[in-house]
Amino acid sequence: MSQIGVNIKKLRKVKGLSQQAFADLFNLTRGNISSYEELRAEPKIEVVLHIAKYFCIPVSELLEKQLTVNEILNFGDHFEDSIKVDQNSGLNAIPFIGREYFQQPKTTDDWSILPKIIFPVYHKQQLLAVENSSLIPNPSNFPFEEHAILFFESVEIEILHTLDQSYGFYCKGEDLFFGEYVVNGTQIDLVLNAWRKIAFKPEHKAGFWKLFAKFERVI
């Protein structure tokens, strides 16, 4: 029996998408998605291929197995399948910005409403996970591959001395980019390129993040 309907529902839930938002990604209707999830119909093969490509999931797995959360988030190579996430697991639920972040206008920078990645990353400061994609501008020398998940720590006053030449992320509503910090005395800029940079100001620190860790699929 095909698992496509079950996996579409799980993909949608993990990515924080409504049935209509998911349908819009693939030129479908909300009714189409409802019928797939309720196992009343199955999508055409071209739709399956589009979904698999968009979410970077092998077609055979999308059709034949019930995907885990880690597989959906492309972390299948970092975890044992037997790992169970519960409130006592010690894993950290980290706000996540993926491609779906761009599907709806942003009216708030409240990270608590973002989807979460469950991952064993620990830090005393707030963390934010961001999928590296072509939708987010980055410097010409940015060394991370497409779909890598980058973890950022919030920029606090006590880590300002560590910012110079480190990679960072700026996000305020729909204005976001990856950049490199340049420190000159007390002047700190997050630089995208010769034409675009943002000056760090303590009163606006909620929008500034410093690279903390990266996770990429192992092929």
UniProtKB/TrEMBL annotation:
Keyword terms of this UniProt record: DNA-binding
Annotated ranges, domain HTH cro/C1-type: 8-62
Name of the molecule in the record: Helix-turn-helix transcriptional regulator
Organism: Sphingobacterium faecale
Entry-linked CDD domains: HTH_XRE
Stretches of the chain forming a coiled coil according to its record: none
Any Pfam family: HTH_3
Family annotation (PROSITE patterns): HTH_CROC1
